[in-house]
Write a structure and sequence with these properties.
Number of strands: 13
Structural class: alpha+beta
Distance between the termini: 48 Å
CATH architecture of one domain: Orthogonal Bundle
Oligomer: single chain
CATH class of one domain: Mainly Alpha
CATH topology of one domain: Arc Repressor Mutant, subunit A
Protein name: Winged helix DNA-binding domain-containing protein
Pfam families: AlkZ-like
InterPro entries: AlkZ-like
Length: about 400
Amino acid sequence: MRVTTDQRRARLVRRHLLAPSARARQAEEVAEALVGLHATDAATVALSAYARLAQPELADVERALYEDGTLLRMHCMRRTLFVVPTRLVPVYHHSTARAVAAQERSRILKLLAGENPGWDAGWLAEAERAALDAVERLGGAGAAEVSAEVPRLGETVVLARGKPYEARQRIGGWVLRLLAMDGRLRRGRPLGGWTSGQFRYHVAPEPAPMDVSTAQAELVRRWLESYGPGTTADVKWWTGWPVRDVRRALAEVGAVEVRLDEGSGWMLPSEAAGGGGDGGPAEAGRADGAGDEEPAAALLPGLDPTTMGWKQRDWYLDPEHTPLLFDSAGNAGPTVWWNGEIIGGWACRADGEIVWRRLADRGAEAETAVEAEAARLAEWLGDSRFVPSFPTPLARELTR
């Protein structure tokens, strides 16, 4: 079976809630639909939710994160910070986060040993226990508060010694982040507004046990449901797993091989049987194919899950535009979408004006729809301002 680029774009628009009629009612629905929201840049969480909510309110995102606790910030895929549905934490934890925490612990021990030979695994374990006790005793605390309670956490380590960008960092922040990766701490409210990346930490219940292969299969199933069809390389990149784990998980969910414009890809068996590509039943073609789609414009923030959802992006992004919209480390900047394709980039200026640049001309309808989305976003932001944590070349140009 073959799935065309037009069909993939149509699926993206519907499944990623970019069509106006597909927008969600609550932030939890957005996180479920996207298998998590990128949270390395704190502003991305609210802006990604905003773009996909029928009646976007910052209070709804904060309710889910800090009041109801139905969403949780955690490091998982590719060692990246995500906001995920709390009920699925065991899936993320056992499929990915435990391995990420082990890698992070090894990295930290290497850095500590380079600074002081006595800062070994035993020293780090004691520091973690002391940090946990301090967080529990304080009823939740930020890194500075915990470091003040535990003197050893106030120690510093020099990074990139001798380089122009040499920096000194406190050990306390590393320890708290590591405990959160292990699932022993959770991030609470930020120590500032909705764009702040500093949080209060709280003691977390241990994630429910789950077999690693079962967790990985469930995560891949959800990715295929939201992002499929995709290639093996796409799944490997998105999860950050070794290719052997990716292949095993694809086999466990019974993924069906399909033909894409750039080669072989995978779909869930239920979708392949229902005609997710051309040649399927007419009803399936209307739901996920191309032809009768609702026009959909969207302004997505930097590091948005849709922009960062695949390694192979040529089917929704002209490769010539990549240097303008991504930084040198591969971080996506704010993007303008039309019917499942990136057609430009945008930025928020210091005075609150939302400005954008067209990189691909898709006609007057697209132009009008994007302008309407820019006006809607400016109205929603009001007096709020934000600057992407990873500014891209086009974003810099637009805000000069």
